[in-house]
Amino acid sequence: MGSTVTVGKKVGAFIASNGKTGYVLFEETYEKNCYPHTPQWSCVGIGYIEDVISRIFAMASSCEGGCLQGRGGCITPEGYISGWLRELASPIEMPDFKNTLAIGTNFSAPIPESLREKVLKGLEDEGFVEQAAALSAQGLKVSLYDDLEVLRAIYVKHRNELGPWRFIDRPTSSFITYNPIRKDLGYVPSKNTTYKPTFAPMFSIYEDRVAMQCSDGKFRMAGERYSVTAHFIEQYAATEMTYPGTYRKSIKAFREAVKTAQKAGDETKVFVTMDGLDPSEKYLRKLIQDATVALGKSKTDFVVNLSDLRSASNNQNHLLYGITSLSVLVWEPQITSTPTEQQTLFDDLAMA
Predict the structure, then answer these.
(1) What is the largest CA-CA distance in the chain?
(2) What pLDDT digit, counting tens, does each position of 176-222 carry?
């Protein structure tokens, strides 16, 4: 699968009928492995400022692993976010877009048939019972200005499954180019200069895989370095809203903390168990069964040192790799520096 290449960004702004400022995100992209490379504009975000900031950070997280790139190749999430914030500061005037939402089976249907029940229930849960009934029957006529809350209940609430391009179909380049600027609707928050980020202690367990301390105080596998950083970026949107302008240093500091995470020692323990694994997860359960046999254990619930797990993996190369992919397992790292000392390091990185 090829990467998506981003070549343009534009933000539309408007005053909704409820008096709040709404935003629409447009991005010009093409797929790197599809030829010819013909960029096209698409609506990629909709809602209030907190909705679109959250969407921007979620998209930016894809830059960390290279799934989202620029024409010249890999780009940083920080640079990508910065580009969107510039557009948010000087948005274009967004006209009132109207469309009929209907449930269908074709690829570009406003609501795919496969998501019928989820979307209808989501509307009802938000209090839009009449709108859900209309959508389920003949279709629901909506206006961007008048029905932003309804649109949020569909395209923000289910954003991982439904893109707002299903409501606002592909815009023309003339619309993007010639609509007037509305600086009065721009998002220009005062930059915070006092925020100090805090990161959970983390350890490098195997190759580039990292275990991180969870809210219950236990360490679990968080994933590969790039994915751990990508998750941090996606989740940082709420912090950025509270402490504007802190994303760049915080992301840089977190990335460095992950990169330099202390390697776990041989006496690091992993508590292996089937608990937490759904019966349908046959591959993951087989990994534990393989480890049980390779280590000569009689039950699938046991504790093993990292050194012994490595030794067993010499005969089964996939064993250690598989065990470190299980996020439900608890690790007890061999610690040579205290979490407090690590936190001081992270604080120093964040303020660098």
Answers:
(1) 72
(2) 778 899 999 999 999 999 999 999 999 998 888 999 999 999 999 99
Expressed in angstroms, the distance from the first to the final Cα of the chain is 37
Report yes or no on whether pTM surpasses 0.70. Answer: yes
Angle between helices 247-259 and 339-351 (to 10 degrees): 140
pLDDT tens, 38-90?
999 999 999 999 999 999 999 999 999 899 999 999 999 999 999 999 999 99
Query: Is residue 100 classed as helix, strand or coil in its secondary structure?
Result: strand
> Are 70 and 7 contacting, i.e. CB atoms less than 8 angstroms apart?
yes
CA 237 to CA 55: how far, in whole Å? Answer: 8
CA–CA separation, 307 vs 289, rounded Å?
Answer: 19
Q: Which two tokens stand for residue 284?
A: 């993951």
* Tokens linked to 205: 């367990």
CA 312: distance to chain centroid?
35
Residue 219 in contact with residue 330, Cβ under 8 Å? yes
3-state secondary structure of 52: helix
CA atoms in the 13 A half-sphere facing the CB of 235: 8
Instruction: Please choose, from the candidates 240, 227, 197, 209, the residue with its C-alpha nearest in 3D space to the C-alpha of residue 329.
Output: 209
**Band of residue 1 on the pLDDT scale cut at 50, 70, 90:** low
Q: How large is the angle between the packed helices 49-60 and 225-235, nearest 10 degrees?
A: 170
Q: Which residues pair with 40 in a beta bridge?
A: 29
Backbone phi and psi for residue 19, each to the nearest 5 degrees, phi listed first: 90, -5
Q: How far apart are CA 290 and CA 352, in angstroms?
A: 46
